[in-house]
């Protein structure tokens, strides 16, 4: 669905929220996980990494390590939760080699069942209460971040933990962008925000300050579009809080790269692939269009990614046999398109092959790599209710809901569609925002939204170069002020230099 985030017309949507079941407010405190391996009573029984000598004695390293709380920005989907558990085990294994005192390692989807836990700020008060006295740092990372614990200790040791610090790998906008509400339009490069993939850290004094502010000034009910930018804005507080301090040891280079010797963190730059890509015939693609765009947008689809799709249908308000399009009997609306989207869901369930496990709904100005999507879907179980794409949020500070933003593409497992339509949750009007209504429905059903940063609601130029440099993107959205065919072949087209395991190599990107 195409719209300007935060636009006033969407505030009308809040008035309809009472028609749907929203998740309960924050109610459970974050919990600590501390694991001590067998035999750890005798410190001499544990091997000690030679590199720990750089940080002093074992006891000092152990003490410093226990003062770090690791929080993995995990998800409840089985594929993602397993990756997060693997990272947790790796952190604890490294820690065990340094002595008895192990750090707390938390998975954010387990810390609280509140819908907005992934936005982090709603958890800040509980983090402060639980860890504000006996810890020095809260270190956040993604499930694919790789951490060298000793180097991380050395890096954090350079900063005075009694002061307010906001540390990370700095990203910035070269041009003002819609996803950041055109912030700092005169010079967007001045504002830095963290690349979550590299990990980022808050000192406890800053955590306690944020918790105090959140207690006196609760979060407003609004949209969450780009969390990393919005957290940096909240911490900065229009100049009253700290800027992000860039840390060169927080890296997003691949762990096998030749230039990561100095890095405390690295990142997996691979497209996830869990066995063979799903078959072409297992992915049904639905393109939403209307008559006025048949002449300019549909030809772009046919010149670019249509050939990758084995099963594809175009849904419009007018049957055009030259494309061909299917008239679903739903009048076109200027915004929202909820009626059309639910008609597509009904058609997929009742008229497509019951053996087709995946549905993808895209706009007619979405650019997508079906071949990469097939690789990505190999990691998800079609027997689970999966709703996948780029995650946004609405009103999450006050008990709202998450949703998959439609422009980057929405991916459904068949069972997710079955559960949705069986629930009788429907549009409150034909022109309601389809992606938001879907988010509310799945939230009420207890089916989690699964986020992938490889889907994009906007154009490549709307994202920092450093952010895209460690991605193998699956989609982008919008044709505005770009050559969409060129953008597709630059960013998304199958490439003979792309290795079989999906690693990003050899792309001809003039703007990187």
Task: Describe this structure as you would to a colleague.
This protein has 14 helices and 22 strands. It is of the alpha/beta class and 512 residues long. The model is unreliable at 1-57 and 499-512 (pLDDT under 50). The protein is 26% helix and 15% strand. α4 crosses α6. The longest helix has 19 residues, at 78-96. α2 (78-96) links the parallel β1 and β2.
Largest sheet: 7 strands, mixed
Strand content: 15-25%
- Please count the beta strands (DSSP E, at least 2 residues each): 22
Total helical segments = 14
Which percent range fits the helix content? 25-40%
Mean pLDDT score: 86
- The N- and C-terminal alpha carbons lie at a distance of 28 Å
What form results from the Cα inertia axes? globular
Main β-sheet, spatial strand arrangement: 14-13-12-15-20-17-21
| Backbone structural class | alpha/beta
Rg value = 23 Å
Low-confidence regions: 1-57, 499-512
SSE topology sketch:
Elements: H1 58-66, E1 68-72, H2 78-96, E2 104-107, H3 108-111, H4 124-131, E3 137-141, E4 145-147, H5 149-156, E5 166-168, E6 170-171, E7 193-194, E8 200-203, H6 204-216, E9 223-224, H7 227-236, E10 245-246, E11 265-267, E12 283-288, H8 297-303, E13 311-316, E14 325-327, H9 338-351, E15 358-363, E16 366-368, H10 370-377, E17 387-389, E18 391-394, E19 401-404, E20 410-413, H11 414-422, H12 434-445, E21 450-451, H13 465-468, E22 475-477, H14 484-491
Parallel strand pairs: 1-2, 1-3, 5-10, 12-13, 12-15, 13-14, 17-21
Antiparallel strand pairs: 3-8, 4-11, 5-8, 6-7, 9-18, 15-20, 16-22, 17-20, 18-19
